[in-house]
Give the backbone structure.
Amino acid sequence: MPGIIFLLQFIMAVIMLPAHILNYLGIWDSFIRKCFPFFMNIFSDIYHKFMEDQKRRLFSNISDFSCDSKELRLLELGCGTGANFKFYPRGCKVTCLDINPNFQKFLSKSQAENDHLTHERFLVASADNMTPVADGSMDVVACTSLTCSVLNTPAVLKEIQRVLRPGGAFYFMEHVADPDESSWISFFQKVLNPSWKLIFAGCSIRKTTWKDLENAKFSVLNLRHITGPLPLNVVIPHIIGYAVK
């Protein structure tokens, strides 16, 4: 089986040869960085149409984490096009953070459509190094489909714990590797992952993010494995839930 996987990965690499050459020349990354927001603007609508019910249930108790009945201070990591805004409670103060500055122009439409929120600021920073965000300054940190693209998930979780106040919560929904290594989904994830990461700006379909969350020493971890109702099988394994600092 490993030999078959390697052979199929090689065939995929040959098919993707122009992209690999551009990547070797250092051109591909800047090209993807500029084009990816346009793709995500379309893909997010499709993805969230399938996952909307899951998101609505996930964020249903987010108001419980407002401090002393004050306005909820929320930091969204990898905010993208702002597809999660409609799930946040009225009066919530939202700070957006994304490593790709090209997403900012797509946020204005989502912000205008979600005027029940107070939109604080947009920060260009990596989720594993959020120096513009002060210690203990957030009631909630939220991210969906982010950890698939970060190189060091434990470092991201450490930063999340730093910026959360004591008792604050981290909400997450992420596609992950299929826990069943013998499944056909796992097989195709292994075959496609090298080319997938190249096409989708570093996104990996083989991340075991649940293990990083289990090791992160949150005081409470509410985590479920679900099968996302998506048409593409390699991204249907998901984890969803929240963790309390």
Notes: The chain has a mean pLDDT of 89. The CA atoms of residues 27 and 184 lie 34 Å apart. The chain has seven helices and seven strands.
